Amino acid sequence: MSFLHVQGIHHTYFSKASATTALSDISLTVEEGEFVSILGPSGCGKTTLLSIISSLIKPSEGTVLLENKPISTSKNEIGYMLQQDYLFPWKTIEENILLGLKLSKQINDKTKSNALGLLKQIGLTGVEKQLPKQLSGGMRQRVALVRTLATEPKLLMLDEPFSSLDYQTKLKLEDLVSQILAEFGKTAILVTHDIGEAIAMSDRVFLFSSHPGRLHKTFHMPAELRRLTPFETRNHELFPSIFQMIWKELESLEQGNE
């Protein structure tokens, strides 16, 4: 049995005036320690699927199993990292990274020490007593990553976490996140609009079509790319051809929606 099993997911949003189907018959699996990305045109239900996998939304139809158990029973086993860091501006960096541990009642000397140690591991030494406004955007996203990892989730959901950063910071954080997740053996799902980012970071890329969202095609990244850092992958000779292949598929989907 796969680590994550998504089967027959269908979801419709209802309002007083209309019904909009966001996802139709989505079935996929993710193995433990795997990094997968979801790409697709606007309106293909990428974030809706993340919300369903996170049990924030109950699907109209279908099931999600994590380690062969319903996702609704997987409390504290899923971490979520968003486009915005959502750090509390009035709390110190230390207070922010320990918040998840406090809310989940996991806080103790060991978990606190581990969280502060992770802060140093990702290059943020001496910022514990500072406020978020004293840090750059890239530094705040690193803090958000530490806060997410502090509760030791088995599955990490990344919803366009680098899209608001400048390009250089984005490339550095791609490498850092990839390295940290590999070291901790974490399983991750990335939602992104960036084809290059999906190729550089992933073992597999799921391409969705839209209106409603369906799984259109799955791309398996070559083994020689998966051994490299995201930055190295972007400079590999295979990268341009894979980029063009996915670009053409995505373009055909978008033209089909016009």
TrEMBL record:
Domain ABC transporter residue range list: 4-235
Protein name from the UniProt record: Taurine import ATP-binding protein TauB
Alphabetical keyword list: ATP-binding, Nucleotide-binding, Transport
Domain of life where this protein originates: Bacteria
Organism per entry: Neobacillus rhizosphaerae
Coiled-coil region(s): none
Transmembrane segments: none
GO-annotated molecular function: ATP binding
Pfam families attached to this UniProt entry: ABC_tran
Cited SUPFAM superfamilies: P-loop containing nucleoside triphosphate hydrolases (SSF52540)
